[in-house]
Amino acid sequence: MGAIYKKELKSYFTNMSGAVVIAVMLLVTGLMFRTYNMYYGTLTLHYTISGSWLAFLIVVPILSMRVFAEERKQRTDQLWMTAPVKLPEIVLGKYLAMVTVYAIPCAVVCIYPLVMLKFGDESLKWDYACILGFFLIGAAYLAIGMFISSCTESAIISAILSLLFVLMTQLMSSIFNYISSTTFSSLVFLVVLAAIVGLLVYYMTKNFYVSLGVFGALAVICIVAYKVKSSWFDGRSESIMRIFDFNTHLSDITNGSLSISNLLFFISYIVIGIILTVQSIQKRRWS
Fold it and tell me: Most buried of 13, 144, 192, 244 (most Cβ within 10 A)?
């Protein structure tokens, strides 16, 4: 894993993508820090961190789009897929290289609270909690971006899907306002979700009948449950959509609520992204 990590980390600075990511992160966080802390005199990094999510629209696609997609397109992935190295070590090595590049500007942001000490009574614990939340949400996005990259041969498609995922999870709390909370709309939402699960099963198995069976079974369960107890579906769509609400969890942390649930939310996405990537590549290795 160490050799893969070093190779990937070196590649980010050889093709300048690592330098671009660091520059974008420092530019966005620097502008937010100058606006909210230096200009308006805010003594915490709450608004600086909350507004810096815009950097993920560029950082996540740039770092993750080529990690597997480009090698798959050029067929160079056959080299490490047939190498005597465990697949989880390959995935972890590549992931840790991405996170290392992302961690560099985060380390620079750690200086901001120390700068603010000269201007007032700065809450260091609160600020570093904000930075921790900012680091974790970025690491979660990179894990999902890595999984998306492993599912396609096109780096462009991988970048677009990663960008859409960032947008969706950041705007999810606003999307709630446009989704009806009636029981029937929740049923429709769950059936659509069952169809998405069926598509994922088809991608993993390439078996139309298995994926159709999974979709049919889930759809029937939802419909039967709706007939038996429709009240259970009241507001259920919103509850499910909150699973993808990154912005609310980051806001909780930046507001001073560094709870275990908020930390586990992002850690769970990191673990899920790594596991899904391993399974995606494992499927190709034996197909």
Answer: 144
